[in-house]
Amino acid sequence: MRLxxxxxxxxxxxxxxxxxxxxxxxxxxxxxxxxxxIFTPFPAIFYYLKRGAVxxxxxxxxxxxxxxxxxxxxxxxxxxxxxxxxxxxLPYFYLQGKGTxxxxxxxxxxxxxLIVVLALAYGFWAGIDLQEMLLKGINSSTEQAVALYxxxxxxxxxxxLFTQGIRQAGALIAKVFPALILVSxxxxxxxxxxxxxxxxxxxxxxxxxxxxxxxxxxxxxxxxVVIAAGFAVLVPEPDVxxxxxxxxxxxxxxxxxxxxxxxxAFFKRVxxxxxARIIFWLAxxxxxxxxxxxxxxxxxxxxxDFRVPKQKNL
Length: 314
Fold this sequence. Notes:
- The protein has helices at 4-28, 34-38, 42-51, 53-69, 74-95, 100-126, 130-150, 156-175, 177-203, 222-233, 238-270, 274-286, 288-304.
- The longest helix is centred in the C-terminal third of the chain and has 33 residues, at 238-270.
- Helix 1 (4-28) packs antiparallel against helix 3 (42-51) and helix 10 crosses helix 11 (238-270).
- The N and C termini lie far apart (69 Å).
- The protein is mainly α.
């Protein structure tokens, strides 16, 4: 006789082992292991949806416990904030009937607020300026990159151009770092739910019917937030400008998702071949201007409603 509790525990252990493998690959191989880091929350999400909250929480607890035993407190804390909370909160809100978009928004929002609170608490406790510490870290990384490329035999003109570009990029990253964290958490949550939906029919038939990305649409009034943030960026006060810029980045991400929904709806309507779709995804991964164009498309979808087929006048 097979006991349900035994199966649940076995699944939780499998989930914990897989989560550990993904997370350790991510922290050990920062570039190669990037994909592993993105899908670190997946085992907890999967077993939460398959077996219930106990299995998901056990998967999370096993992973966190092993990481704590390994010693350095920063590693389990990093797992908790980057993947652990997402693996628990995302399936929780989804099973509460919040829908895909709201489940992601709630999980990511709570996770981000916790990161902000902990960061501010740490800064107050340690008596350090977090912004200054961030700038020092980014400047150190950019100087290392400049030194590395300086050894590649670049001409003085090319090296100077590269140095200016990477320092400007570093300064911009420092300004929008909070927004980048929020966007990163949102991307991780969205990609994990996308995998869940791909395997839903065979592996998770009991979970609610998902909302398709094709139907994603931002609230119409969000455009006023974009307009207000745009004006805030132009304000001479640095703090106000920085807040406006961060809001623009986050809103740009949400409109990118809406633009992507428009593109996917077009692909479906005209039956775009698989090869063309692969080329599109590759271009999207390596061409930032295409990302910007899709975000603008999503913004104008408010007025154009591009997913609705236009009726021909007879």
